[in-house]
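Summary of Year 1 activities. Much of the first year was spent building the evaluation harness for sequence design. The harness presents a backbone, in tokenized form, and records the residue chosen at every position. We chose the following record to illustrate the format because it has been used consistently in internal testing since the harness was completed.
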């Protein structure tokens, strides 16, 4: 069980770098209130099943897989509230030895039944 927002952010980064689709269930709110604004697609992605499909589109698979791609975060700022924490910073992504992509990110991490999960994510892109 993930008990803090920093633990959730670390687990999400690990999920991305391992492409482990099984971790989506552990990290994201498992219902239709979950929302996600992607830097890769227009519009709001809404609901757990849509989030699973979105990650499958990035190549995530059950159990994960090896990849040359790397994702990391920088400049994180945490703002805690009663049942949620808002985390803002910059995401960085590199495909193999290709150029680094980056942009702003906001995570809304909520506590439900004692465990932290993502309630909302918002990604943007900085110009190359």
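For this record, the design step produced the sequence shown next.
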């Amino acid at each position: 069980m993930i008990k803090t927002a920093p633990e959730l952010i670390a687990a999400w980064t690990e999920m991305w770098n391992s492409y482990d689709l099984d971790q989506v269930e552990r990290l994201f709110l498992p219902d239709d209130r979950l929302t996600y604004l992607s830097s890769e697609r227009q519009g709001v992605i809404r609901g757990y099943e849509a989030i699973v499909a979105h990650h499958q589109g990035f190549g995530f698979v059950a159990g994960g897989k090896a990849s040359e791609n790397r994702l990391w975060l920088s400049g994180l700022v945490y703002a805690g509230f009663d049942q949620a924490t808002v985390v803002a910073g910059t995401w960085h992504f590199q495909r193999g030895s290709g150029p680094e992509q980056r942009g702003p990110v906001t995570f809304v991490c909520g506590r439900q039944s004692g465990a932290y999960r993502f309630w909302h994510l918002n990604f943007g892109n900085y110009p190359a």
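The helical segments are 5-18, 22-27, 48-57. Quantitative recovery figures across the full test set are reported in Table 2.
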